[in-house]
Amino acid sequence: MTDTQVYQEVNPVFLQQLVDLGIPEKNAREALIVTENQSSDAAALYYFNEAQMPTEHCSQSCKMVFVVNTELCMGAGKMAAQVAHAAVGLYQTMTDEAAFWRLMLNKWDEEGAKKIVLKGRNYKHILELQEKAARLGLPQYLVQDAGRTQVAAGSCTVLSIMGEEVNVNQVTGDLQLL
After folding, report:
1. Measured between alpha carbons, how far is 117 from 158 in angstroms, rounded to an integer?
2. Do 77 and 17 belong together in one domain?
3. pTM
4. What would the pLDDT profile of 59-117 be if each residue is shown by its tens digit?
5. Residue 42 lies in domain
6. How far apart are CA 124 and CA 171, in angstroms?
7. Looking at residue 19, which CATH number applies to its domain?
8. Domain assignment of residue 178, yes or no
């Protein structure tokens, strides 16, 4: 993409508003493109909250973990299906969210897409882990079963969490492998 093409793709009013805020023009253009010219506010939020993070976005290796609710005593096939739901759900959530998470997913994928399956004690334990992950700003996805096979409808089967290993380990580092 040439500089001329980039310039034509951004809203000039929004661009000027961003430059007036002290954002370098090149960065303002990038922020507008990433946020699809929604508004100067959206682009400014992107610039100040996401674009200012290190280029690699993850200075350490990233991983995705799955915490299985072992209280439910799911069979191997059911458990595998629920972990798959958790993986797809978290991945979709992250690709629908901020550009930062999409970049983290790309780095994670380039590093081999590390995935770990862990034991969660019960529903309450899963919710505590989810809350801890949310406090750390880690993306997470909680699977609630439809209730068509082995567990009751609405049962929380698997929690997936992603982020830099050091941060994810703050939430799940003391859990055993499944």
Report:
1. 10
2. no
3. 0.68
4. 678 999 999 999 999 999 999 999 999 999 999 988 876 666 777 888 888 889 999 99
5. 12-51
6. 14
7. 1.10.8
8. no
